[in-house]
Design a protein that fits this description.
This is Secreted protein. With 123 residues, the chain is an alpha+beta fold. The chain contains 3 helices and 5 strands; from the N terminus they run αββαβββα. The longest helix is centred in the middle third of the chain and has 21 residues.
Length: 123
Amino acid sequence: MAEMDVALKDALEVDGAIAVAIVDWTSGMALGTAGGGFGFDVSVAAAANTEVLRAKLRTLEMLGMRDTVEDILLTLDSQYHLLRPVTSPDGRGLFVYLALHRDRANLAMARHRLRLIEQQLEI
């Protein structure tokens, strides 16, 4: 199991990583962040992306679907933003947010690494 600081560091090592946060989706507060800067406020981005995750969870509930969200991908002109809910019992209500440079990231590898990081995260 990886502690939060180790998980954040590992996520920043993903090719093309800009910033990462571990976020409480009930409050929108980032419990830990790394990276960002140069006009990219990772805490603001994490809080705003909380609404994206909440909207998807509400949609699943309204549709009566029992599926869970594995991850959410937002594709921008120059960036990818990945949101991955934490699945461990002690991490319920949290998600990992990772922003990537689109031209430097391998999306499949980033999703794979984020899955591994999330599964090993110890809260």
